[in-house]
Design a protein that fits this description.
This protein is α+β, with helices and mostly antiparallel strands and 477 residues long. It has two domains: 5-114, 3-Layer(aba) Sandwich (Glutaredoxin); 146-471, no CATH class. 30% of the residues lie in helices and 19% in strands. It has helices spanning 15-19, 21-30, 57-61, 87-94, 119-127, 145-151, 165-172, 195-205, 212-223, 229-234, 248-252, 267-282, 318-321, 350-361, 381-389, 394-404, 409-412, and strands at residues 5-10, 34-38, 51-52, 66-67, 69-74, 77-83, 85-86, 106-107, 110-111, 182-186, 191-194, 240-246, 305-307, 330-343, 375-379, 407-408, 431-432, 440-444, 452-458, 471-474. Strands 12, 13, 14, 15, 18, 19 and 20 form a seven-stranded mixed β-sheet that branches. A five-stranded mixed β-sheet has the order 3-2-1-5-6, covered by helices on one side. Helix 7 crosses helix 8 (195-205) and helix 8 (195-205) crosses helix 12. The protein is elongated and about 105 Å long.
């Protein structure tokens, strides 16, 4: 039988490796077929003819997770390995009965350089089989990759992170779904979008791998036929997707539901919404001035994503009100516009405040238009406390708002009050509801100071129930 060969993987910074230098010297004497690979300092064990694994290719190909690791092979096939220092196991694998008598019997070792953050993905991209299928775009040695993204139209006008193989592989580590799984057809071109392409655009948006389950759920919600993403994209109105995240994942990935929740400064909020917009642009071809025909647009078309404040267990989260069991994570996508602030610093009873909020909600789309679009009411903490202290829950608040929003049709018909816009004159004798029964979503968010809530008006294209509605999807981890 062919004599066994041994390969030893070490690094100078490993305290166990440093302790075992006399053991390694004994191995060199006893095992002529020994190769020693050093991951870091090329001078370490140089007297024992060590080999510097500068690129970490040998450690990668041998799947080394810990130093020291001793691997035994016969005819090129691994037969055994020992990870860390376990004296009895090293003696058994080498056949040296008195090996390591002068050192402790056990020491666990240290992590391999290949397991440093970000290193493994680079090694897979360089030496392994990454199984990435997307077309590779070569950039010249002296070209700026970020500028190349601008030149090819892959950005929303802001800089993006170049989607290198290693970054895509790192992003894919955030999901258990296969890279080649097709999530759906992206409008307007109805181009197939794989999980890998989602990851590439999440990289460009600046996401972390742990955001991937949220990004995938957001995309699935956007592709639900009832969300009408194609129509929302090509409308001349202001609207775009607004993303609301509920459940434990919001806290796990560090989303903001407090101070400045609708603004800048939080990576998860900013990049999850941006990833959806980049997927629509780069995979589906939804570019402004082409299929995206917004007359004015709004800043939320870069990204509009936030989490609901679920710190009060007495409040029913939006996702629960829409059928997701409490304690599970979900996303809700709403076809909406920018933020309309509501300042009421004087109302102190729920009855006063609900009438005040209803007055502001009347302006959605137009004060004389009804049931042309839905709306989100975002309750900031100081306004919410007025309702909570009075014992009003989500159901009560929603019911009272709808009641306060009833208006005489004579005030809303075309031409009333000298304004041409309005509803059909035949409805003059009706009491008319501003929104359909399920057309008003209420969400809690915002900082503790300031009696300011907010309204996000809905897309007028959503006026037909069952054809265009908000969509809620549970997040699969």
């Amino acid at each position: 039988m062919t004599s066994p060969r041994f390969t030893l993987f070490v690094k100078q910074e490993c305290h166990t490796c440093a302790m075992l230098e006399p053991v390694f010297a004994r191995l060199r004497q006893a095992l002529p077929q020994l190769t020693i690979f050093v991951e870091d300092d090329p001078a370490f064990l140089a007297s024992l003819s060590s080999v510097h694994d500068k690129t970490l290719e040998h450690s990668f190909r041998n799947n080394i997770e810990t130093t020291p690791t001793l691997v035994r092979t016969v005819d090129g096939h691994e037969t055994e390995r020992v990870v860390g220092w376990v004296r009895d196991e090293w003696r058994a694998i080498t056949g040296i009965a008195d090996l390591g008598s002068d050192v402790p019997a056990y020491s666990p070792g240290c992590g391999s350089q290949t397991r440093q953050p970000g290193v493994w993905e680079r090694l897979v991209a360089r030496f392994g089989e990454s199984h990435l299928k997307s077309r590779t775009i070569e950039v010249g040695e002296w070209d700026d990759p970020m500028e190349a993204c601008f030149e090819r139209g892959w950005t929303d006008g802001l800089p993006v992170v170049p989607p290198t193989d290693e970054r895509i592989l790192r992003m894919l580590s955030g999901t258990s779904r296969r890279p080649d799984e097709v999530v759906g057809l992206i409008p307007p071109d109805l181009a197939p979008c794989t999980v890998e392409k989602v990851a590439a655009n999440a990289v460009m948006a600046g996401c972390k791998p742990e955001y991937m389950p949220v990004v995938l759920a957001v995309l699935e919600a956007a592709l639900d036929p009832v969300f009408t993403m194609h129509g929302l994209l090509c409308t001349t109105y202001f609207s775009g997707p607004i993303i609301i995240v509920n459940g434990p994942i919001a806290q796990a990935i560090g989303m903001n539901w407090g101070v400045n929740a609708l603004g800048q400064g939080n990576r998860a909020n900013a990049t999850i919404g941006r990833a959806l917009q980049l997927i629509i642009r780069n995979v589906g071809g939804g570019r402004p001035g082409e299929i995206d025909r917004a007359t004015l647009g709004q800043p939320g078309k870069y990204t509009f994503c936030f989490a609901e404040d679920e710190t009060d267990p007495a409040w029913e989260p939006l996702s629960v009100s829409r059928g997701i069991p409490r304690g599970r994570s979900a996303v809700t996508l709403f076809q909406g516009d920018g933020v309309q602030g509501v300042a009421d610093q004087r109302s102190r009873t729920p009855e006063d405040l609900v009438r005040s909020l209803a007055m502001a909600l009347c302006a959605v789309n137009h004060p004389k238009l009804v049931q042309t679009g839905n709306a989100i009411l975002i309750l900031a903490p100081e306004h919410y406390l007025i309702f909570r202290d009075a014992g009003w829950d989500r159901v009560r608040l929603t019911r009272e708002l709808h009641a306060a929003l009833l208006r005489p049709g004579s005030d809303l018909i075309r031409g009333a009050h000298g304004v041409g816009e309005g509803i059909a004159p035949a409805r003059a004798n009706e009491m008319v509801a501003k929104f359909r029964d399920d057309g008003l979503l209420i969400v809690r968010a915002g900082g503790q100071a300031g009696m300011f809530s907010a309204i996000c008006a809905g897309w007028p294209g959503g006026r037909v129930r069952g054809q265009t509605d908000p969509v809620t999807k549970e997040i699969r981890l």
